[in-house]
UniProtKB/TrEMBL annotation:
Record InterPro entries: CoA-transferase_III_domain (IPR050483), CoA-Trfase_fam_III (IPR003673), CoA-Trfase_III_dom3_sf (IPR044855), CoA-Trfase_III_dom_1_sf (IPR023606)
Record's keyword annotation contains Transferase: yes
Key words, A-Z: Transferase
Record-given protein name: CaiB/BaiF CoA transferase family protein
One of the record's GO molecular function terms: transferase activity
Keyword hit for Thylakoid: no
Length: 406
């Protein structure tokens, strides 16, 4: 039984996180921590809360289907940070916290008396994760920046799409998500440092949207600085690497096949019953296939178009050729591997009923994360936090409500 209890313990369950965030990057950062047991207290405006409560391309009975996922496992309170009384309450919360996360425009927290220097005086052990478009320093620090701007200036948008068309977006707010993940990484490193320092000194974690995107741009900068090469949009291909592309199937779906290594290419030609291709001087080596990429892709496309996606996938799996369908949400929902890996969770929401949402990433063997509840109502945890954590009396609590402070 003791061992079972140890395994059920979550790695961050003794960490208290205070989130001053809205939309995607800041809230996603704290959500990742909440999934692994951190007590996340999300602070929202008493009037309308996080705008994400009403976001999403699809709604159910007028309700956002994004909010229940983004705010899962969090405790939501309301607090007016624009007034002195609200700011003083925020400082009391900071005294109880390990991590503060915010994604306002630089200078906003300072205007409220809640900048890092202010928080450090209140709680020297505090770790503050600041997420912004361009960081807390530099000539662009005061510029407004959304994820799309970060993706553009970080270099990702320039290489996304087809060479004969304008740059396009990735399809999700990848800049926000990347920055949130770097924020988590920074917070965990800062926690490790704090908890192994004799004075338990906290620190500032400064994460910028454009930098988070730039950090995953591989060797593109080095290539330019050393030889003057600028990566461009290449559509679905990886230039000089073949076969590695999207190929059509009989029913109109698409499959990705990556068989550019010599030994894997030979396996592919065997499945295709075209083993002579591996001996053809146009395709017999990596460099040759790269030079004749278009011809080779046309041959493979003619072959894949004869089969259904499921049949192709099984044939290629059996042969050890990396391949996979280009999934939409329906494909993901029906995929047995997603289901067996607990990547599709069924959770009950108080307003929306049964919801399916993405599972926990990553998988930890001894201290796995979980989803305990979906996104709360505005101010749902006010009583628990103000009367429980901060010790306000019933009279004081009612006065805060009446005065519009919470």
């Amino acid at each position: 039984m003791a061992l079972d209890k140890i395994k059920e313990k979550k790695p961050l369950e003794d960490i208290k996180v205070l989130e001053f965030g809205s939309f995607i990057a800041g809230p996603f950062c704290s959500r990742l921590m909440a999934d692994f047991g951190a007590e996340v207290i999300k602070v929202e405006s008493p009037n309308n809360g996080d705008a994400l409560r009403n976001w999403g391309s699809s709604k159910y009975k007028g309700e956002s289907l994004w909010w229940p996922i983004q705010a899962r496992n969090k405790k939501c309170i309301t607090l007016n940070l624009k007034g002195n009384e609200g700011q003083e309450i925020a400082k009391k919360l900071v005294k109880e916290a390990d991590i503060v996360i915010e994604n306002f425009r630089p200078g906003t927290m300072e205007k409220w008396g809640l900048g890092y220097e202010d928080l450090k005086e209140i709680n020297p052990s505090i770790i503050m994760v600041r997420i912004s478009g361009f960081g807390q320093t530099g000539p662009y620090k005061d510029k407004a920046g959304f994820g799309s701007v970060g993706e553009a200036m970080g270099g990702l948008k320039h290489i996304t799409g087809y060479p004969d068309r304008p740059p396009t977006r990735v399809g999700v707010s990848i800049g926000d998500s990347l920055t949130a993940m770097f924020g988590v990484i920074g917070a965990l490193m800062a926690l490790h440092h704090r908890d192994h320092s004799p004075d338990r000194q906290g620190q500032l974690v400064d994460t910028a949207l454009y930098e988070s995107v730039f950090a995953v741009m591989e060797s593109s900068l080095t290539e330019y600085m050393k030889v003057g090469a600028i990566r461009e949009r290449t559509g679905t291909i990886l230039p000089g690497v073949a076969p590695s592309n999207n190929y059509p199937t009989k029913s109109g779906k698409w499959i990705v096949i990556g068989a550019n290594a010599d030994n894997i290419f030979k396996r592919l030609t065997k499945v295709m019953n075209m083993e002579e291709l591996s001996e053809d001087e146009r395709f017999s080596s990596h460099n040759a296939r790269g030079k004749n990429q278009e011809v080779l892709d046309a041959i493979i496309s003619d072959w894949t178009a004869q089969y259904e996606l499921e049949t192709l996938t099984q044939m290629l799996d059996d042969a050890g050729v990396p391949a996979g369908g280009i999934y939409n949400a329906e494909d993901i929902a029906n995929d047995i591997h997603y289901q067996m890996r607990d990547m599709i969770l069924q959770i009950t929401d108080k307003k929306l009923g049964e919801l399916h949402m993405p599972g926990i990433v990553p998988k930890l063997s001894e201290t796995p994360g979980s989803v305990e509840w979906t996104g709360p109502e505005l101010g749902e945890h006010n009583e628990e936090v103000y009367k429980g954590l901060l010790g306000y009396s019933e009279r004081e609590y009612e006065e805060l409500k009446a005065g519009g402070v919470i």
